[in-house]
Write a structure and sequence with these properties.
3-stranded mixed beta sheet, 34% helix, alpha+beta, globular
Length: 257
């Protein structure tokens, strides 16, 4: 082989090697947040989005398909955190969601470790602050989400009709508080009054969530803790260890829970 032919061969080899060197970078798997996610998206990143929304209290089905339910959960997340409410996950939102999901899982780095997001066993307990609840690790995602929603309104005052014009309100009445928890779990699309809750879901007590309702009052028992606006401790939505008699109430539960 002559000098020129050898030079051309070497150049071709170098060029081919350079092209091959670019392939891994071009084919490297994208990280969550590298692309915008919207209704119609699908795949691994959508599954991550759904898991993290559910973990932070905005439950949705984890199936890798960005459908209507996931869009509504994302819109609730955006509204809760003061973002533009359009149901589209931007790169900046993805970073914030990741940070909140890690914090909810008790994995956020900080000088003082955060309270655990869940406790062992199958029963919820009051957190050390005596106000918020800790979900049981054995509970389904919807139960974690319902408890997280209840925690978000425990400092709200009692207000008749509160939580019915909109899920997000300055105060809540009994059925408004129950509706908010169910909505946070992805189980209720619009608020119901106490009479409306008498036809919610299926008859009887549930394994994880039970609703007690009649024409005058409503409350929920979620993983063993009662979310109610009446009882000891003042007025407004709050968690109670003590249960109350269900006499005179229609007892209902979400299907499967």
């Amino acid at each position: 082989m002559g000098y020129r032919r050898r030079s051309r061969a070497c150049a071709a080899t170098i060029a081919a090697s350079g092209a091959l060197a670019l392939v891994p970078a071009e084919r490297a798997p994208a990280a969550f947040g590298d692309r915008v996610l919207r209704e119609g998206s699908s795949g691994r990143h959508v599954r991550v989005l759904q898991r993290w929304l559910t973990l932070t209290g905005f439950a949705t089905r984890v199936d890798g398909e960005f459908g209507r339910r996931t869009r509504l959960a994302l819109r609730r997340y955006e509204r809760e955190h003061g973002m533009k409410v359009d149901g589209i996950l931007s790169r900046m939102q993805a970073r914030g969601l990741r940070r909140r999901a890690l914090a909810a899982r008790g994995a956020a780095p900080s000088a003082a470790p955060a309270a655990p997001a869940a406790v062992a066993g199958a029963a919820a307990v009051l957190a050390p602050d005596g106000r918020t609840a800790l979900a049981p690790a054995a509970a389904p995602p919807q139960v974690h989400a319902a408890i997280a929603a209840g925690n978000r309104i425990v400092d709200k005052p009692y207000r008749y009709g509160g939580g019915h014009g909109s899920f997000e309100d300055s105060g809540y009445d009994c059925s408004g508080a129950v509706s908010y928890a169910l909505h946070g779990a992805g189980l209720l699309r619009i608020p119901r009054d106490s009479t409306g809750l008498t036809t919610f879901g299926a008859e009887g007590a549930g394994r994880w969530i039970t609703i007690y309702a009649n024409a005058g009052h409503a409350y929920a028992v979620i993983a063993g803790l009662r979310l109610d606006t009446s009882g000891s401790g003042g007025k407004g939505p709050r968690w109670h260890r003590e249960l109350r008699s269900g006499k005179g109430y229609v007892v209902r539960h979400p299907l499967g829970l």
